[in-house]
């Protein structure tokens, strides 16, 4: 087992020291108070190995806002459903522009480029919403099943704030609806979408919830095969090519792991067959990814020489 | 008086003959039944001179759906208000692309290129809506004042249909709201906007209502100065450069009059100091303008040698 | 005769006073020394009436660089040829973006939006170049015929500088060639194009050369019908909708005359059947049009109440 | 050693059978005769393992046109140079649009999104061209060193054809030059670029030449460390996120290997620490990648369960 030779705890401790100079270079998300008010120098990491070991540093059990990382879990949930043809409604290519641009969506007739840009994630949520009486609860339950933590709940203040600042997402949903790529009534759909982004979670929870991407679709937490092996590989490929907004290339280049980020400052990444890793640090870089979190993951793959490349 | 030498009635009758071969080359708007069901070969024209004469041909007193021509009258209405700085919220340049594109709106930070594309017209309506308890009624009253016809009313079936197919306009409004360029709650605003587009009018009404653009801002129907002379010239300039969707250049080239069209098949045009002219024929060309109507106006300015150029 | 009641000379003198506060607000074109080195506070105007009168103020007989105004004269020259179908190779719609953008050209398969953006002007020159052994000389001769001034010559220093900074125009030409919309070998074509932009002329020359657009296609200078009446109107329409880069709407709104500008600081405008007018002032506004020149023309149409609207 | 348990030869033979139904579904590149005239049903594969073993099927030693795969080797060559800051002149993000689009290049001020789109590859070649007296020869020598085959030569007929159809690349180069991102005189630069694309090679050569990406930067053929371990990983990351034109996402999703394709029908892919693999089949899919080649690689990673995910 390649993992056994690595001193994960020691590596995490080294990283905690080495990222310090980078605090203050990024900036909290500032479009809602609930995100801008989080102390900017928060830092936590958690590693979950395929062997069942957990390593952590910092406030790895403290909750933060999952934000766009929720897009990964709704995608997993949809791919676990039967009789869903998601790929006729969402593409699988990087977007090549800012993550919420309407331009490509219009040129490509309401088909979002991939499930990790906002428009694509809204379509994924639409699939869940059109098949459930209480889609918000269903999304939360799925995540709690994967993390094993019943305390992962929607922060209602955040959900409300998102709603109040969600005009761009409303524009995306309406544009897609004009191309017949949305089924759920838009206010209902956006309510579900904003709630999924307002879920609270910790680094430890995130690392656990991502384990199916490490274990060929099996969740050791839920003790259940939640994805096929084939879909697991495909999600990892999508994460690598589309998971980091407009910084996928740089992230693949520097870190070399499939990953998903959120503007709450979280990033979760996986090395298939080896480990999942989550990091949290609220200050964001110009691409909207955690600045210190990205640096920490780069240090991690450099120090351990563990990446997919 | 240059008009007196022209046999307007004779010219209209010649045109009625000469446009016949063009029926069937265009296609009714088909996104709502109320427009697609109108007999395609309807044809009417009305000329209103500065001297108070009216000339008409065809069903010039039959009502049709005003659609985007309403954008001209809401703009006139806003420019007649005091203390409104519309030009900080809407540009005055041609859009250069399809009339409802979101692309430029996004690149230009939610400021529509001009008041005659949908986004710009929605901002104009927003100005009226944010200053009135019953903006729909106010818009209708203004038009009835200019046309002198109290029978110009909203077609409720059309208004409802617009609402049901208005997702793209909802996308525009939400996008502009995300840039803080919309004040009115969006469902309320769109309701007003869809209602103004569903106003019914005739060629004779339209020609009368456009007279202020002929008479330096004075409405001989309302017997009132509704616009300054300066604003009147400016609206005519805007019509010429922005009034015909993505065909302003061709229209200026062929017809040479400031004009505004609607997908109901109406077009209203003016020659300042001389006359206003309205035409109605429901079949549209690829740019969304009345195909036979455009041809009729081209014949009119060719035959009379009356244009601004 | 409406002109006879206007004191043109008095108006020009008033304008000369009133534009003074605007010097220094714009900025000379700076991409080539020959333009950036021109004294910024130069100012001249010339009016040429349909009755043969000339009025002028400032250095109205001093030469400056014609630059993009040459596009107007090559278009006139091509439209005066027989058997040329220019409109299958160039559109007639405003561009809606910066004047040298490649974006629309690519989306529209190498067909430029109109003959007054660089790409369109290059196609117009291509038509002349593919039909003549010495196209540069032919272009110069045509302009000299219209201005009546054999001293209008290419400034070889400017022509060379253009060549050295013309990579963007080379990109346009190559892109259009990839869509089979250019025939002449590109280095030869660009040489002709850069030379036409380097022609030197004065306000008086420009106002005379534009007279065919005032006189239904007849040049009183050349004593020759150089354009059909129909094409004359059409060129005026194109000027109004496309002649001022990305400021056509504002210019039509403020000035209300068909016009063409150049980055040398010149603008020529016409009121059909009445007069042509040229202005020169080297400092440009953000749209690349003479700032003081635009202001002067606005004052002119306001003071005389003469515009097409 | 994971490879030892896989029957590579047997897998290649199975694939040769299973891809047969896909012949005729794609279409040879048709912009130059030298590519359109290649028999469409050609098929070859070669695998080169880290242990020095070679497996092959079909005409694996027959030469074809390397085309865009050359972009991989010029990038490797530039990264092997000292004192070159390539990343200030080329980005590392997927382009998200067709591979030769000018749009993003203009919006991003002449900085191409990555070194594998044409614009980016031209900048890479510019770096080589500006540092060498005979850059074409230097590029060929580098490739021959990596493949170990002195017979890899430029096909002069193809090079000439490229030149004659290279107007779009000339547009790209001129546009970048206008942003000061090209140093070499453009005709010289394009000559070098078109020659590198006209290099002929075989599957066996390609698989050998790609071995440094498998072996941490060491070429067992040249017996030389040609790249640092760090740059090797980075190139693999760039290949995965940017190597397949507008199909990187789908390719990562289906195949899961860093790879580079060319319109000659070749694709080369690597699994770091394990093997390189090359495939050749001239018929292309809508994205410009070998249709049968992509299918063959998908079958290969499915059958062997060897991919980076």
TrEMBL record, chains A, B, C, D:
Its EC number is 3.5.1.2. Gene3D superfamilies: DD-peptidase/beta-lactamase superfamily. Pfam families: Glutaminase (PF04960). Keywords: Acetylation, Hydrolase. GO terms for molecular function: glutaminase activity. It comes from the Bacteria. It catalyses: L-glutamine + H2O = L-glutamate + NH4(+). Transmembrane segments: none annotated. It is an enzyme of class 3 (hydrolase). Substrate binds at residues 68, 118, 162, 169, 193, 245, 263. Belongs to the glutaminase family. Homotetramer. This is Glutaminase. The gene is glsA.
